[in-house]
Amino acid sequence: MFFVAVATIALLYSGVSLIGKLLSEPNDISTVPPPKGFASDTPAVPLGTHDDGAAPSTRNGPQQSSSTTTTTPLITASTTSANHAGWSIDYLPPIMNSMVQYHKGSSLVANSLEAMRPPAEYHGLTCPQLVQRHMTEYAQVASRIDFTRPPKYKMPWYFHDPYALCGRYLLTHHQRDFQQDVAHPPQLLHRVAVRQPAQGGETSDSQMVVARVAAGEWSNGDVYVEHCGQCAEVVSVGESAALKCAGDVLMLARLISDQTVVSADVQALVVPANGRPYHPLRFFIRQPGEYVLEVTLVHVNGSSSNVSWPRSMGVIGIRASDHNKKSFKYNLACDLQRHVYGSPLKVLALGRGAAIENVNSLNLKPLCNVHNYNQTIGSGHWVRVPYKTRCEAFQSGSICSGDPTWLTDACGFNNELVWSPDSCRMRVYSPPLGPQQSCLKRGRSGFLLFVGDSVAREYVQNCRLFDLRSSKLHCIFANIALEGQHYSLDYAKAVVKAMIDSLKQNRPGVLATNLGIHHMIGKSSTEQWIEFIDVFIAAWKAEAFQILPVGTDQWLLEKAVWLGPPTIHYARHGMGHQRAVLWDEIAWKKLEPLGFIRLYAIAPTLSRTEATWDGLHYASYKGKVQSPWRNRAAPVLLWNGGVSNMLFNVLLNLICDPIPT
């Protein structure tokens, strides 16, 4: 019966209208206004403009917590080395560098990074000297771009092979195009700074500045992002100048060792009475050891409600045609250009660190469920559990429960890393076996119906790897999403009707939906998103849907899940991370009173930019995105991507495990 229902939706809404249009994995990435003489229908937008009074950025960083997990990390040198401009690109530990190591030979040419100097050199410059150095590098990078010629692989015009113009150079290029003043110094120029850098000899790497911090404590502001651009010269004029210096530039930061990955928060701009404006970096390192800190430029104008203004600062990976064959392309030059000056740097975490919660079973965190998982939104980290090691055999089971082997995928997007929320231990289910108890309290079999776009489809792709008969669930998918560029109230009502009809025809036990958010977010306004959700809620109430059984034989939903968006590291223009955070909160506040539960996906994906093949999607299809294979030991699945696998595990923890009464 459910096959007929889904097929009916497809017939009604795919050929006649755009309502049921099947989502293809997007490969038309962000567009930006070109330089003068290059045709475009996109209006130029001044950098740092806030047309809606929104805060300069909407980030989600770690929440304060004292829970801990990992063993002492040591950065392990890579087996191969590629030096450009005198500094090595092999700073990532083995668990993170499979993408870099595999693709660097094909994505770099000998002089593609010759303008860039080792990160430590930028720390020794004054701000005026850094500005001069930046303009020299920018001129060298920009001179290689022929903006009148279509780019290879149908990329945006700034993503060229083998050369690229991204990140810190693209930010200046935007400014020059917007201001139409090629001689003007850069308004926005950033550098990672350390108040008391460590002395030489504390690490073997002379290419990075070293910062010392205390393990087991929150950072005290000794590491920060300094403003060296022109805006900093006039910031004393007043608050408006300070906002201009903030620039609505989204930076994301993370710390990496060979045992853990944790996000760091680039906090709001601080304007001191004396000195330059800066953003403090706030992070919590649980265990002593050696880490790498990355700070990268991600989006500009992302807080604007004008959908034509946000810009991505670089496209790193994409599925593209090469010799009439679809294959994965990774642009390492663009990836490295996204670093602010002085990034990456080494961080030495000193001291005893926080106590590891593995003395005995009484000290273990509780297993995750819908209540304790959502208690600490944004708080957690990725922990390395060695390949083919069960959770119970690692740190006395303090990280997780089950077998995480399948999270190491053949594509190399995830290597031995498991998401560990601060508040609970995740049950890691390994296909083909899923939960061995019923996920439905009424004891009958039922459907787990996913409704939404291609991101919602990734959960279905993972679900189909499992045999869920023991849990009394069968996964089905209704690919229904509103195309934002065609938004109207009547169109919104038609899409909602298709969603409600799918619910009524399939009668699922569990509904999981993202309401097609990613098909709206790049082209629709926030006001239209609110209107669309209100239309959905009105239709939901009109049908008198009830969640959880009430002791009757009539069909009732047992659970309804809001699938929040993952972090958008780079994507189509307008589809920025800040808007995704805002829309996620808007949807959740409206759906929670209806009885929905929440899968918060931003926290696990915030620090995993290398785990996505196009900045948004985390599951890649065999033979289209990730071939040839990078992790030869891992099994090749139809859909591969460890972070995507982990998110589906989170969903199973929320809907299939006992909830305390």
Automatic annotation (TrEMBL):
Keywords annotated in UniProt: Signal
Signal peptide residues on this chain, from the entry's feature table: 1-24
Region of interest called Disordered, as start-end residue ranges on this chain: 33-72
Name this polypeptide is given: GPI-anchored surface protein, putative
